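Page 37, continued from 36.
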């Protein structure tokens, strides 16, 4: 990911893209890097496991998270919950 973001460093508006950014945790549970220099394919979004759990478990049962399941992207395996959809789970 670092190799993809570094060439775009001057175009990414919300974060300073430098080595220190990649040495620790991401700035927030949902981190969006976007660059307005393109009309399409102009963002990369990262979610922490806790963000995924807190957000997706309201609507689905999380069966698995497969690291690098699609090239460098993780894959969520979700299942429709047993409860009726009118009873959305709350946090």
């Amino acid at each position: 990911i670092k190799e993809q973001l570094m060439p775009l460093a001057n175009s990414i508006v919300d974060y300073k893209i430098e080595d220190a950014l990649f040495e620790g945790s991401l700035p927030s549970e949902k981190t969006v890097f976007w660059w307005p220099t393109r009309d399409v394919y102009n963002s990369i979004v990262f979610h922490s496991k806790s963000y995924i759990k807190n957000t997706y478990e309201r609507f689905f049962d999380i069966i698995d998270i497969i690291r690098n399941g699609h090239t460098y992207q993780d894959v969520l395996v979700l299942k429709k919950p047993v409860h009726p959809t009118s009873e959305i789970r709350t946090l």
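The radius of gyration is 16 Å. Flag for discussion at group meeting. The helical segments are 2-5, 49-56.
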